[in-house]
Every structure is written in structure tokens, then in C-alpha cells.
Design a protein that fits this description.
heterodimer; A: 267 residues; mainly alpha; 2 domains; two-stranded antiparallel ribbon; B: 289 residues; alpha/beta; six-stranded mixed β-sheet; four-stranded antiparallel β-sheet; 11 helices; 22% strand; globular
Chain lengths: 267, 289
């Protein structure tokens, strides 16, 4: 049951998009979001949509996986569309009590829903095609300039990749402890709020303990292998921007520029 | 032969059905667990052992098939699930990681308390369970986290024994302990079995310990029952076991090697004692000839 939770899921593959430098992909997502928020008309939305659809097609990520990820935001999408539908002013098409539907309202509702869905799908493209390790490495390199103002970029990236690595492990562990306590007659779904909170104790205490134990063991293992932070640390696989990345970035910038220009002309 | 207490009928379990991650962990498994017997379940990693035992007290529901406790389907209702949880005690792998109370006493009392027993009954159960696993009175008021690894494991097992289950199921109870610790845990479990007449199911991937005291053994392979019978019957198929990736007892290996060299030992051999007896018999036979 708990295992069904997907967090920053990664679908391994060997497409051009998978092979892009993680830095490129992070920058592309930023460019993509900027374009999406500058888009105002059907045409500019269309341009961004073609860009997204092409990326999905190339990445060979199945559409069902994409749609499944959208489930959690369905409520937000519906709510914002409804608000947009009823609160826009313009040509009234239908009217009932205090609700009125306008032509502009319909357009705004559809575009707002599209914007949210495309926003989430675009960011999925990053996490679905980039392994967590590559993602944090890319982030670390992008944030490197911040080291000048004493931001511990390497340490933050290391912590992030460890957290990502340990989430599934902890979920599995929680599952196991829950089963063990259930076997001893514990019940988690009965009683009032206080009883339910109390029932969590037999899970939380062992979980905390095992997290501390894991952290301790991990720290020892890292020290045993002479880890002492980012200073002078080198990589086995150093990331290199290639032609591929340049082409992708230029393409992204062109789309963004196109959308901005379209907006200028009121399209 | 004793009558069965737990009956597993045509049990099939599929994880994440209808997804790309679909996996059949158990396929049409039929097992009987009889009153008061010691049953060893052996199988390679991923053979479905853990999935199987979690069905025994309704922690997971079968995809198809039934588990009958005294003839009643344990997944029938909420009350039957509750009954199964208290009558079938399940000790998970590394049970010491589930300890959580301030004192050893309170931790052992967790199960009986959930069974809504009276304070006197709980007290009796805790002391009795502690006695079975050799946890002294003095330790009862200590924090479970101050104990040694072996002691923690025994306290955790006591926590299940305190519920006085009629079927005690243990998943790899000896994993990660030194030989002395293994011996002790095995003795504790046998003490509970001998004193209460409860059925004991020990799941393991190492044969030696299970074989020594098991009345019957079941070999799981790829989610199916590959073999079942007495340890003697099982170990006559040494080659097959090895093909399933299971380590046969050292003495069985030795007997097989001797056989290849033309020394035929009488009967099936899987413990040092049996090996000694078999060799003695062989020697005596030679002396007579």
C-alpha cells in the first residue's frame, strides 16, 4: 500500500532526452516554464504544446505514466478552471442566479487548466528522464557560483541525493514495522484522533531509531572511504555539454522568444 | 498424525496486479500446518516465503485461495482477522527493530494488552514469556535499547510468545546471530513448543537448524511448493535442492561425495550425529564381513 507512492520517479531509457546533460534539462524546464507563463493566446499555447508533445514523443515515456502523475493535481485544476470560468467579465453567454458564463471566462478556464497540466507534465519530463543522482549533480554544478558567497552547494546536493535515495528504503521499513506491530494486535485505523495518534508511537519510535542507525552507519561508511566534503573532490564521470545540449538549449530559447514575440503582437 | 490447525488452500498472491510491475509471488500453494508440529519452510531468496507467512495471520490478503484456521476462513470478517492475529503469532525477520517501549516489560506486554486481557493476566503472560526466552527478572525494568543484540531479539520474540499463539511462525529467527546466539534462540523456541504444544513454523534458507528438529519440511521454489515431507525424505533429493539454489546440510554433501567414491552410507544423513552413527554402522558391517 505504501509502496505505491511514487516520488520523483525515474523511468530509465536511452533516448536523446535521457542522454541530455542534466544541466541542460534543468535549464530547459526553466525556459519552458517561462514560455508557458508568457503564453496568452491559443497560438502561443499551441507552440508550447507542440514543444512539450515533441519532448514526450522523443523520450518514449508512456502517456499513461504521464496521466497517472496528474492525478494529485486534478482538484486544483478543476477548482482554478471553475474560478476562471465564473469570474471573468465579457460577453455573457449564459446566466443563472449569481453565476454568469462569458466567452472570455471559457477561454480563461481552458487556458488555465492547460497551463497547469502542461506545467506539471513539463516538470515530469525532467524527473522521469533524469536519474536522481544526475539531477542533484546537475543542480550542484548549476549552483556552483553560489559557493563564492559561502553557500555549501556540494553539501546540500549530497544531502539531497541521500534523502532521495533513502525515501524508498524508509517507506519499505515503515511497511515492515507496521506489519510487525499489526501482528502483535496493534490497530491503526480505529478510535478517536488521540487514540490514533497514540497508535502511531509503536511505528514512529522504531522508525526514528532505524533512521538514526542508518545515518550513523552511512556516516561511518563515508568516513571510512575518506569522504570529507566537497573540497578537492573529483568525479569519475564528469559532465560535458555537447552539441546535443547546445541544439536543445537554442531550440528552447527560440520557443521562449517566439512566445514573447507573439505576446507582443497581442496573440 | 495430528489434525491440521491451519490449512492453506490454493493460495495465489500477485503483487501490483494489472501494472507493468505485476509479479506472482505465490502460485496455487496448498499447505497444512498440523497441531503441535514443527514445520520448516525453506526456499531461496524470492521464493515467496515471506509473502506466504504474512498470509497466515491475515496481514496480506490472498489474490485467490483461502487460509482456514480450524476450518474457518481467516479473512471472513474483522473479528476473524483479529482472532487469527492472536492465535497465529508472527515473528518477523530482525524482530528487534520493532521494539519501542520504555521498558522490556512494557514491550512484551504490548501484544497481550492489545488482546484486552486483565492486568493480572498480562503480568502473568509477560513473566511467562520472559521465562521461555531466558530474559531474567532484572532485565524487565531496563530499556530494551540498552540490551545486546541477542537479548533484544529474545525480548522481541517474547513479545509474540506472550500472546500465547497456537501457531508460532518465525521468519529467519537466527539471522545475523553468532552460533551461540542461534543455539539459544532455537532452544527458547523449542521450550515454548514443548511446554505449550503449539505448532511452530520456522522459515529459513539454511537447512541445518531447521532440519535438526523439524517434523516436516516444505521447500518453496518460485512461489510453488517444490517438495514436502520429513527431513529424511527431503534430503534424499540433495541434487534437486542444490539446483534450486539451496545449500544442503554439510553432512548431506559429505554423504553424497562418499557415495560418488563408492562408499554407500545406510539411510539419509544430515546431522553430525547421524553421520557418526552411519559410519559406525558401516564399520561394524565391514568387521563382520
Amino acid at each position: 500500500m505504501l509502496k505505491d507512492v511514487t516520488l520523483g520517479q525515474y523511468f530509465p531509457g536511452d533516448t536523446v532526452i535521457h542522454r541530455l546533460d542534466p544541466r541542460t534539462k534543468i535549464l530547459m524546464v526553466i525556459i519552458y516554464i517561462a514560455a508557458l507563463f508568457n503564453a496568452e493566446s491559443w497560438i502561443s499555447y499551441g507552440v508550447v504544446l507542440i514543444f512539450l508533445a515533441a519532448a514526450i514523443a522523443i523520450s518514449e515515456i508512456r502517456l499513461t505514466a504521464m496521466l497517472k502523475g496528474l492525478k494529485p493535481i486534478v482538484f486544483i485544476v478543476v477548482l482554478t478552471s471553475l474560478l476562471n470560468l465564473f469570474y471573468a467579465s465579457g460577453d455573457i453567454i449564459a446566466q443563472w442566479w449569481i453565476f454568469k458564463i462569458t466567452r472570455e471566462g471559457i477561454k480563461a478556464a481552458i487556458l488555465m487548466a492547460a497551463r497547469l497540466i502542461m506545467l506539471v507534465m513539463g516538470t515530469f519530463m525532467l524527473t522521469y528522464t533524469t536519474s536522481p543522482i544526475m539531477l542533484t549533480y546537475g543542480l550542484e554544478l548549476l549552483l556552483n557560483p553560489l559557493k563564492k558567497i559561502k553557500v555549501p552547494v556540494h553539501e546540500l546536493a549530497m544531502m539531497m541525493s541521500m534523502a532521495l535515495r533513502l525515501i524508498p528504503t524508509l517507506i519499505e521499513e515503515t511497511d515492515k514495522i507496521m506489519s510487525a506491530q499489526k501482528a502483535r494486535g496493534a490497530e491503526f485505523d480505529t478510535g478517536n484522533l488521540i487514540q490514533k495518534a497514540k497508535a502511531m508511537l509503536p511505528i514512529l519510535v522504531p522508525l526514528f531509531l532505524s533512521s538514526f542507525r542508518r545515518a550513523d552507519e552511512l556516516a561511518t561508511a563515508m568516513e571510512a572511504r575518506c569522504y570529507h566534503g566537497g573540497e578537492n573532490r573529483t568525479r569519475l564521470n564528469v559532465l560535458k555539454m555537447t552539441r546535443r545540449d547546445m541544439i536543445a538549449l537554442i531550440l528552447g530559447v527560440l520557443v521562449l522568444a517566439g512566445v514573447i514575440v507573439l505576446a507582443r503582437f497581442g496573440l | 498424525m495430528n489434525e491440521p490447525i491451519l490449512k492453506i488452500e490454493n493460495l495465489t498472491h500477485v503483487y501490483s496486479p494489472n501494472t507493468p510491475f505485476e509479479m506472482t509471488a505465490l502460485h496455487d500453494v496448498n499447505i497444512e500446518i498440523r497441531k503441535g508440529e514443527i514445520l520448516g519452510i525453506i526456499g531461496h531468496t524470492g521464493s515467496g516465503k515471506s509473502t506466504l507467512i504474512q498470509h497466515l495471520n491475515a496481514l496480506i490478503k490472498p489474490t485467490s485461495g483461502r487460509i482456514l484456521l480450524d476450518g474457518r476462513d481467516i479473512n471472513e470478517s474483522k473479528s476473524s482477522i483479529k482472532e487469527a492475529r492472536s492465535r497465529v503469532g508472527l515473528v518477523f525477520q530482525y524482530p528487534e527493530y520493532q521494539l519501542f517501549e520504555e521498558t522490556v516489560y512494557k514491550d512484551i506486554a504490548f501484544g497481550p494488552k492489545n488482546m484486552k486481557l486483565t492486568p493480572e493476566e498480562i503480568d502473568g503472560r509477560v513473566r511467562e514469556a520472559a521465562g521461555f526466552v531466558g530474559v531474567e527478572e532484572a532485565l524487565l525494568e531496563r530499556s530494551p535499547f540498552d540490551l545486546s543484540g541477542g537479548q533484544k531479539r529474545r525480548v522481541a520474540i517474547a513479545g509474540v510468545i506472550a500472546m500465547m499463539p497456537e501457531v508460532l511462525v518465525l521468519d529467519e529467527p537466527m539471522a545475523g546471530l553468532d552460533p551461540g546466539g542461534c543455539e539459544e534462540i532455537m532452544e527458547n523456541i523449542l521450550a515454548y513448543h514443548d511446554k505449550t504444544g503449539a505448532a511452530v513454523v520456522v522459515v529459513t534458507h539454511s537447512m541445518e537448524e531447521a532440519a535438526r528438529r523439524a517434523d516436516r519440511m516444505i521447500v518453496l521454489n518460485h512461489g510453488m511448493v517444490a517438495m514436502s515431507g520429513t527431513p529424511e525424505e527431503i534430503f534424499t533429493h540433495g541434487g534437486e535442492l542444490r539446483r534450486m539454489g539451496l545449500a544442503t546440510p554439510v553432512m548431506t554433501d559429505l554423504a553424497d561425495e562418499l557415495c560418488k567414491l563408492g562408499v554407500k552410507l545406510p539411510g539419509t544423513v544430515y546431522t553430525v550425529e547421524q553421520m557418526a552413527a552411519a559410519l559406525m554402522e558401516l564399520e561394524r558391517g565391514r568387521a563382520h564381513a
